[in-house]
Amino acid sequence: MTRTVRFGLYSIGVGVAVLATKFAAWWITGSVALYSDALESIINVVAACTATLALWVGSRPADQGHPYGHGKAEYLSAVLEGVLIILAALSIMREALGGFLNPQPLDASFLGMAVSAAATAANGVWGAVLVRSGRTARSPALVASGKHLFTDVFTSAGVLLGFALVPLTGWLWLDPALAAVVALNILWSGTGLVRESVGGLMDAAPNRETLARLRGILSSSAEGAIEVHELRVRHVGHTTFLECHLVLPGDMPLRQAHAISDRMEEALRAEIEGAVVTIHMEPEEEAQQRGVPVI
């Protein structure tokens, strides 16, 4: 069992504990806002299960049927997680509408608020662990799960603040209003997650800063060559595939050309651990003005 899969299993356990805690807070208080918060925790548990399955599939090595590995399973799980988040947001909006039409007084007990705050703190701590571990392991699924938990933390903190204000102001509509705000925040998070995950499935290019950094590495490590062009980068789970064309003098010996290629590959792998690099060599007449000149 890989380290990322273990983190996925831990996430399921944390999610179940937080879910039980948040429903206890809702049962104590009767708050629509806390109910909406608890509903999102159901999605968190389902998402944790899906992410764990995807992490297990993605950790399998490349085979004859999948020569690039199984890493994109993580993006599939993230898309599903985003869809579930959107459905939860719609469900919360429905509950908020009911609260507007038929507002109910809240039992603003200290116990209920303390229970919800404890669940929120647990989510915050575990979200930080997932983001840090996901970035270290270069796992899109773990990073996405951690960011989702952070969204839940900020949402829960806002709900608790408003929930405390209801008995002070006497505005019963404030509770369903906060539930609606929670729903909109969750909806925004879900659509953003779907958009980012679909980008991974569609082999979207990295940002300009990353491309500029990679071009600099290629330029400085290709001494003896003329130009590097047609740089392409795509991510498959925790693996990054890089391809480029290397323009060399036509009379350069193969052994020397191969040494330049090896030096470039080592430099790229030093920047991106586990990168899979493919370099296509071309003669000098294939040089392009839009390529990366070698310095």
From TrEMBL:
<keyword id="KW-0812">Transmembrane</keyword>
<keyword id="KW-1133">Transmembrane helix</keyword>
<keyword id="KW-0813">Transport</keyword>
<feature type="domain" description="Cation efflux protein transmembrane">
    <location>
        <begin position="10"/>
        <end position="202"/>
    </location>
</feature>
<dbReference type="InterPro" id="IPR002524">
    <property type="entry name" value="Cation_efflux"/>
</dbReference>
<protein>
    <submittedName>
        <fullName>Cation diffusion facilitator family transporter</fullName>
    </submittedName>
</protein>
<dbReference type="InterPro" id="IPR050291">
    <property type="entry name" value="CDF_Transporter"/>
</dbReference>
<dbReference type="InterPro" id="IPR027469">
    <property type="entry name" value="Cation_efflux_TMD_sf"/>
</dbReference>
<feature type="domain" description="Cation efflux protein cytoplasmic">
    <location>
        <begin position="206"/>
        <end position="284"/>
    </location>
</feature>
<dbReference type="Pfam" id="PF16916">
    <property type="entry name" value="ZT_dimer"/>
</dbReference>
<keyword id="KW-0472">Membrane</keyword>
<comment type="similarity">
    <text>Belongs to the cation diffusion facilitator (CDF) transporter (TC 2.A.4) family.</text>
</comment>
<dbReference type="InterPro" id="IPR058533">
    <property type="entry name" value="Cation_efflux_TM"/>
</dbReference>
<dbReference type="InterPro" id="IPR027470">
    <property type="entry name" value="Cation_efflux_CTD"/>
</dbReference>
<dbReference type="InterPro" id="IPR036837">
    <property type="entry name" value="Cation_efflux_CTD_sf"/>
</dbReference>
<dbReference type="Pfam" id="PF01545">
    <property type="entry name" value="Cation_efflux"/>
</dbReference>
<feature type="transmembrane region" description="Helical">
    <location>
        <begin position="41"/>
        <end position="58"/>
    </location>
</feature>
<feature type="transmembrane region" description="Helical">
    <location>
        <begin position="149"/>
        <end position="171"/>
    </location>
</feature>
<feature type="transmembrane region" description="Helical">
    <location>
        <begin position="78"/>
        <end position="97"/>
    </location>
</feature>
<feature type="transmembrane region" description="Helical">
    <location>
        <begin position="109"/>
        <end position="129"/>
    </location>
</feature>
<feature type="transmembrane region" description="Helical">
    <location>
        <begin position="7"/>
        <end position="29"/>
    </location>
</feature>
<feature type="transmembrane region" description="Helical">
    <location>
        <begin position="177"/>
        <end position="194"/>
    </location>
</feature>
